[in-house]
Specification:
Number of strands: 12
Distance between the termini: 45 Å
Radius of gyration: 23 Å
Shape: elongated
Number of helices: 6
Helix content: 25-40%
Structural class: alpha+beta
Length: 191
């Protein structure tokens, strides 16, 4: 509503995050009694809201980040998983990314979880190439670790090779490092 009512120009970037569309609660459902049927109220509100917001967001160069959850579809045919809120968000969105992580991907250190391996799959992209997958390590304290991403990219590009015994070697064949020495090597080499 703030964007719809103000027409003044904003100089800096604006990012609006709506965390969990599945948790949005329409007023009709909030004021109603238990057991009342409210089929598709959230979907209709989101459809109308997305039509109103799409032009305003584009005009003011706002990033509108909608976080949603998936549920297992009961239908026999079609998509196995669906998202809450109807079809308005998939139709109006510019970029859709599915972020996956499993319990088995949690990285432990001294029996304490320190992060998780995440896979992000871009399945709709109006501004770039869709159907791409990115895998990265998300540290619970520091966030996405660029050194770990550089480490994984080195393996995928063939610049790093496994040397055995927890060590790896660079493409020159001479330098042998373990994972802990990698951070010191990169930080001293590329300041």
């Amino acid at each position: 509503t703030v964007l719809l009512r103000t027409e003044e120009k904003v100089t800096g970037p604006i990012v609006i995050v709506v965390d969990s569309i599945a948790r949005l609660l329409p007023e009709v459902e909030l004021e109603g009694d238990y057991g009342d049927s409210h089929m598709g109220v959230t979907a209709r509100l989101l459809s109308e809201g997305m039509r109103k917001l799409s032009n305003v967001v584009a005009r003011h160069k706002v990033v509108l980040l909608l976080i949603n959850q998936l549920y297992h579809s009961m239908e026999r045919y079609g998509e196995e998983y669906k998202s809450f809120g109807g079809r308005a968000i998939p139709i109006q969105s510019t970029l859709r990314i599915r972020v996956n992580s499993r319990k088995s991907d949690v990285v432990m250190e001294n029996k304490n979880p320190i992060g998780v391996k995440v896979e992000a799959y871009v399945f709709k992209n109006k501004i770039g190439v869709p159907f791409r997958t990115a895998k990265y390590f998300f540290n619970y304290v520091t966030g996405i670790d660029p050194l770990e991403d550089l480490f994984q990219a080195g393996f995928s590009l063939g610049l790093l090779k496994i040397a055995g015994g927890g060590f790896f070697k660079l493409s020159d064949g001479k330098t042998r490092l373990n994972h802990d020495q990698w951070e010191d090597f990169v930080q001293t080499r590329f300041k």
